[in-house]
Amino acid sequence: xxxxxxxxxxxxxxxxxxxxxxxxxxxxxxxxxxxxxxxxxxxxxxxxxxxxxxxxxxxxxxxxxxxxxxxxxxxxxxxxxxxxxxxxxxxxxxxxxxxxxxxxxxxxxxxxxxxxxxxxxxxxxxxxxxxxxxxxxxxxxxxxxxxxxxxxxxxxxxxxxxxxxxxxxxxxxxxxxxxxxxxxxxxxxxxxxxxxxxxxxxxxxxxxxxxxxxxxxxxxxxxxxxxxxxxxxxxxxxxxxxxxxxxxxxxxxxxxxxxxxxxxxxxxxxxxxxxxxxxxxxxxxxxxxxxxxxxxxxxxxxxxxxxxxxxxxxxxxxxxxxxxxxxxxxxxxxxxxxxxxxxxxxxxxxxxxxxxxxxxxxxxxxxxxxxxxxxxxxxxxxxxxxxxxxxx
Length: 392
Ligand code: GLN
What we know:
By secondary structure, this protein is an alpha+beta fold. It is built from 13 helices and eight strands.
């Protein structure tokens, strides 16, 4: 809490240079860990469609601000779905670009092999405009793609690519626990794509069934390592109750980190520990590799994938208070894109009877942002969902 960055991240720098007016910082779960914005070190954020419900997380503040019309766009970071899941819960567009397309210079690290900056907007075109301003190589991020900046709105023709093949991930869409209204809305979106001329293929990606478990282990392991730097010496809270250096480390971390973050550091260190790293971290890395390979093969036969963002619409505040591990299942459909480094975009596709937004997502091969935006935009032009806004 109350941290003020000492310098601008590259994304902020580029937005300012492009003329954007940056009005503030949005609420989020502490260290971007969570799916509801209830683990913020300030206060929860409410869903503008129903203030008894969460806006999703970790970037709930960004999504709520865009959905409520406070701002036309807001950034978030994506380690396992923190832009797309809030987008689906708030009825807006949320993109997660290819792993290394947007510079992470100045972005606080959570899971370094997964982290990427994402964008919330009300429309696909706005999303493409913001990506055009922030994407492209940055010498200050050694992992950033050697690609230049480009205009991602150029592919928005209102039509889909001729011959487009979309693979519907059946083991995700028909997974146990899918809400009936969410499923029906996504099936209608699939029909819409058929009308637009796309060929739909129903496929299965078996490794996706393990995504939440693999993500759970890898993200905690990397978080435990990344957060080691918050030791009370150079970053974050410094405990006043310390006589020795060791007390300073321990007390600063105990006082400074919230319960959710402490839980993750403990789990992360456990899955990396000498006796357990082969069983947990090692196996998770192997399954991640299988996911990457399966996906590469699948993109030989289809252009894009279509799958849910979340099995259910926004849940009530406190719904997972007694079972925080259950909340981690929120990452089931979103984490495959982070684990494989591929881009994905969440789009609104309807509402439940209780007037809660429903979303779905498109995923593509590495650096397929133009095709993703084109395909998302074509759908948006023939559907009304992006024009619906909450009554405030
Ligand atoms: N729900 C995920 C988590 O808590 C999302 C994190 C993210 O993308 N920052 O790890």
